[in-house]
Design a protein that fits this description.
Blueprint (H helix, E strand, L loop, with lengths): L21 E5 L4 H13 L5 E4 L11 H4 L3 H5 L2 E3 L2 H5 L4 E5 L10 E2 L1 H13 L4 E5 L8 H4 L4 E3 L12 H14 L20 H18 L8 H14 L4 H17 L6
Parallel strand pairs: 1-2, 1-6, 2-3, 4-6, 4-7, 5-7
Length: 263
């Protein structure tokens, strides 16, 4: 059943709950860690938190501060006595662990797990991921309830993650699996735009005229290569039209007050 955290302020609006998987914390120990898990969930658009026998009871006021505004997730969290109870209504269950287990099971990366969950949840299947307590992780009996294991590829000599990290890395892969943010983009002020080729060509010619005048391009055999290199350097800068105007002002200033090129 939903529980209250006793937060003094109105919880922040986290947006409408969309399709997602349940985050199931098995015997979490510290309220602060549960709060940080809620924050990680909110970052990635997840809303459903289930707690199995939290050591310090629930609600826990120590969770509120670390949640950093994600109190709604804490307020709506559900508490269960056993892991079996917590996953009883779920049709797909994954279990996070970094330790080898003496059992035959499928092992997924967080990315592969996210792809499976997106497929299942998209088909109306209720799903969740189990996360173990901070000190020892999940027990084998908990893992046995899962359809597959999720293991994060990490430095083989040090695979330890804290609880919020474990939740975030899996939740992030879930989020980006359906996110259309471009891998790279140029962000610029609204009052400018990328320079067009006519503006760039005018800059090149302006600079080359002054370099000819000061003697920098005086070696005729090398001039074509030098000009090409200079143009490539400036082209890679991907200037805005404002930046082109600034550079032309710099060139004019140097030409007006500068001297001849000296060896």
């Amino acid at each position: 059943m939903p529980v209250a955290t006793g937060a003094a302020t109105e919880p922040r609006d986290l947006g409408p709950p969309g399709p997602g998987f349940a985050v199931v914390l098995v015997q979490p120990q510290l309220g602060e860690n549960i709060g940080m898990v809620a924050r990680a969930m909110a970052n990635c658009g997840l809303h459903e938190l289930r707690l199995v026998a939290p050591r310090d009871g629930w609600p826990n006021p120590d969770a509120v501060g670390p949640a950093s505004g994600a109190e709604r997730i804490l307020l709506d969290a559900k508490v269960y006595d056993t892991t079996a109870d917590a996953v009883a209504d779920l049709e797909t269950v994954l279990a996070t662990t970094a330790r080898p287990r003496d059992m035959t099971t499928e092992v997924l990366t967080p990315r592969a797990a996210a792809a499976r969950l997106r497929r299942d949840v998209g088909a109306g299947i209720k799903a969740g991921i189990l996360y173990g307590k901070e000190a020892r992780g999940l027990e084998n009996d908990d893992v046995a309830l899962a359809d597959a294991i999720v293991t994060v590829p990490l430095n083989a000599s040090f695979t330890s993650l804290n609880l919020a990290q474990a939740v975030f890395v899996t939740a992030y892969e879930w989020f980006v699996a359906a996110d259309d943010t471009p891998d790279a983009e140029i962000v610029m002020p609204k009052d400018t735009r990328p320079a067009n080729k006519q503006e760039m060509l005018a800059l090149f010619e302006h600079l080359e005229d002054e370099l000819d005048a000061c003697g920098f391009l005086r070696v005729k055999e090398k001039r074509p290569i030098m000009v090409r290199n200079i143009r490539n350097i400036l082209q890679r800068a991907r200037m805005t039209e404002q930046e082109v105007r600034t550079w032309r002002g710099i060139i004019t200033g140097l030409a007006k007050f500068g001297g001849k090129f000296r060896d």
